Amino acid sequence: MSATINHATPAASAPIARARTQIGALDGAAGAFGLSAAIAIVFNTILAWIKDAYDPLNNFMASLTSHHWITHGLADIAVFLFLGFIFTRRGFSMDGTKLAAIVAGASIVSAAGLALWFVLV
């Protein structure tokens, strides 16, 4: 019968365990603005639906700038920046793979939602 001997002390293995849990973690602006991008993508779709269904909002947005799509784009950028700074201040951190899946999922769902909206309306 053979036995495996582990010569690493618990104090020596702690940094290794900590490094394993941190691999792929996005913190600071990367994680914060990644999540902000996913939310802004969904916001873009919802705003497009509401604006197209409710003419007074569409007209109001057109009156703010020379075209309603310009106001729409500025609103998207404002949501992205605002949430990104809020999440950065709160010390947001997330696994990079999970964040990429969230952004991809938000993009796919929003693209399908817009495509379905414009086909049905």
Describe the structure.
This protein is mainly alpha-helical and 121 residues long. It has one domain (26-120). The protein has five helices and two strands, in the order H-E-H-H-H-E-H. The protein has a two-stranded antiparallel sheet with strand order 1-2. The termini are far apart.
At a glance:
The protein is built from five helices and two strands. It is mainly alpha-helical and 121 residues long. Helix 2 (29-53) crosses helix 3 (55-64), helix 2 (29-53) packs antiparallel against helix 4 and helix 2 packs parallel to helix 5.
Largest sheet: 2 strands, antiparallel
| Strand-residue proportion | under 5%
Order of strands, widest sheet: 1-2
Summarize the amount of helix as a percent range: over 70%
Whole-number mean pLDDT: 85
Number of strands: 2
Individual helix count: 5
Shape annotation: flat
Alpha-carbon distance between the two ends: 73 Å
Structural class: mainly alpha
Q: What count of structural domains?
A: 1
Low-confidence stretches: none
Order of helices and strands: HEHHHEH
C-alpha-based Rg, rounded: 22 Å
